């Protein structure tokens, strides 16, 4: 609704971190495609838990990562249960949806060699969490009371996930001597901005500018 309202919902650091705001046309599209929004949201929560668990399998020698990712995976699965419950209450059937281009578009830029690979995956994680948080915050003023209340709780937890991913990226870049992490963050932020602000034919939770816009 109003920019002030969105800003008060969104942690300030996150607004600065992202390369652009979600286009208004996406918000309008989301409001007219709430079923797809919910189904794809459920998919995203499940995928977020699974990404965190993959990191736990791959990096057993990093206790801080293990603890943070284990907490994160549990929270994402709880979010998944909450979305599925809400869908059931609203008579929205869970069906398969193709993935949006977003996560794959970011992952394509990830290095295939550790430790750069780990740092890249953590930066991408921070961006996905930050964008999810921003979209929840932007949608809240337009939603019914039940969905708005749920999304308000998600703004808080996805905001924490963004902070954890970014902290881990900087920490392991320093520990493992990965150079120029801030430049790498800027690089991925720009990739993310393009995915959000260029035309995208398929509406999803993380899709870009609606094609007709
Ligand atoms: Fe989540
Ligand atoms: Fe999250």
Automatic annotation (TrEMBL):
<dbReference type="GO" id="GO:0006400">
    <property type="term" value="P:tRNA modification"/>
</dbReference>
<dbReference type="InterPro" id="IPR012347">
    <property type="entry name" value="Ferritin-like"/>
</dbReference>
<dbReference type="InterPro" id="IPR010386">
    <property type="entry name" value="tRNA-Hydrxlase_MiaE"/>
</dbReference>
<dbReference type="InterPro" id="IPR009078">
    <property type="entry name" value="Ferritin-like_SF"/>
</dbReference>
<protein>
    <submittedName>
        <fullName>tRNA-(Ms[2]io[6]A)-hydroxylase</fullName>
    </submittedName>
</protein>
<dbReference type="Pfam" id="PF06175">
    <property type="entry name" value="MiaE"/>
</dbReference>
<dbReference type="GO" id="GO:0045301">
    <property type="term" value="F:tRNA 2-(methylsulfanyl)-N(6)-isopentenyladenosine(37) hydroxylase activity"/>
</dbReference>
